[in-house]
Amino acid sequence: MDDDKLVIAGRAFRSRLIVGTGKYPSPEVMVEAHRRSGAEIVTVAVRRVNLD
To answer: In this predicted model, what pLDDT tens digit does every residue of 2-27 receive, in sequence order?
Structure first.
């Protein structure tokens, strides 16, 4: 099972762990946590803005 990759839209990922970018005390802590996790997929929040 070590070679069982997650494939999404034709892209293969070694890790199935998906991490977020919110709730970290600083950008530096977030980057280090992501690096240490080994995750290859990171979620981000997008805020909508009314341009009218």
So the answer is: 679 999 999 999 999 999 999 999 99
Domain count for the chain: 1
Residue closest to 27 by CA, chosen among 44, 40, 52, 9: 44
Containing domain of residue 25, as a range? Answer: 6-37
pLDDT at 1: 56
Identify whether 25 is part of a domain. yes
Three-state SS for 36? Answer: helix
- Tell me the C-alpha distance between 39 and 52, whole Å: 38
